[in-house]
Amino acid sequence: MKSTSIDVYKLKLILFGVFVGIFSGAVVSSFRWSIGKLLKLFQGLYVSARTSLTTFILLLFVLVVVGIIVSLMLKKEPNISGSGIPQVEAQLDGQLEVKWWAVLWRKFVGGIISIGPGLFLGREGPAIQLGASVGQGFGELGKLSSPVSKRILIASGAAGGLAAAFNAPLAGSMFVLEEIYHNFSPMVWITALASSVSSNLVALYVFGLTPVLSIPYKFSLPINMYWHLIVLGIILGLLGRLYQVVLLEMPSLYAKTKIPRSFQGLIPLILLLPIGMMFPKYIGGGNGLIVALSNMKVGLLVLFGIFVLRFVFSMISYGSGLPGGIFLPILNLGAMIGALYAVFMHQIGLLPISFESNLIIFAMAGYFACISKAPFTAIILVTEMVGSLGHLMPLVVISLVAYIVVDILNGSPIYEALKEKLTVNTKHLNRVSKFNDRIEIPVFEGSPIDGKYIRDISFPKSVLVISIYRGEMQIIPRGDTLVKSGDRIEMMVNGATRATLKKKLTELINGID
Q: What's the CATH architecture for 433-510?
């Protein structure tokens, strides 16, 4: 049975999660609103620059100044680079220690002035890091002594950040569990859910109830056309693996420019000027383009050209290290692949064009599922973003197929891969100071320790097994305690070696790294 102290602890964390969500929602909603307003302003200026030399020079000056300002921020605080999701993962793994306020305000300002002018970057990655910073701030200001509690609040803040960015509370919680925290502990998911819901309420108050991607469709895809999901899923998987390879190589390509890393953002910002002047409607993260895709009525060649532009410049934008994410650009590219497939199949007489909207929706989920290798998040996210439950089965089919293709091609989850490159290639990952910390690892079906006694398991000498959770029941372990699949083993470790021990213990308990 659960003790009263555990109940109080859980309620306290849930209450903290609610407050973290409210503040995360306010911060991210302000962030999202500012980017939207700034993008509209710049779109108008790009159009004006076509005929006005003064506007052209002014825009060039502004973009260079923006690049210099963000570069100085990056030089002072490198942890605001990119989406921020790899940094949050590194924090939760014990590989990185950051100052929450320094990251919060710089990511907020740097993200707005980087994404707002129209770079092909998303707001959701920064929103996750902003939320995580809020959660970290609550943990430190609330003087929570437990490292576990602090990590839970960081995770709940990340969930609230994504929820506010996309009006998707369930996806916010699932993404944290599936991709960032890698733990389905009840304590984590209930706190993350509390944060996501409260954060989403703030965002709904600011932006209204309309789904972020309100894509109208006339008919549900018939069962006899499900073979399109298989074919499209394979295409998405192949292109998803290409996306992973190119994105991970971008820092190496930028390094050949010999420009200091913190100043490489000047390249995409300067390139943005001619792109914005030629294609003002297609710049930015891409949510407006997704909604307009099915009504664009353009030919296959034009669609392909837009796709190539979006793919190439999103790589250039993110590879520079400027504050901005890949979440929304991935969804945008997936939607374009779906549109390309629908138009092509219609032209050869294999698909009515009335199903174009359906395939746009399905392809978004499939592309994100295979690149991030987080299919549950992809399915829930797209469902919440389009505001319809009528696509669940097709979303599951296409996400599964695309995921399997990338898995066969040895693709890793993109944020995990980015975190590994961050850990290896940068010197600003500071090891945490020594303290006692906890690791909780679930025992999967087929685990090599399933059915073994605690005394027969070769735990490292520095690890102390303190609890086993079986459902809602907490078991105090002894030598003759039998471990079963579905259990969650909680262990006490030295905080300075937490990241290394977590990998070893995961391999010991489940036979995987």
A: 2-Layer Sandwich (3.30)
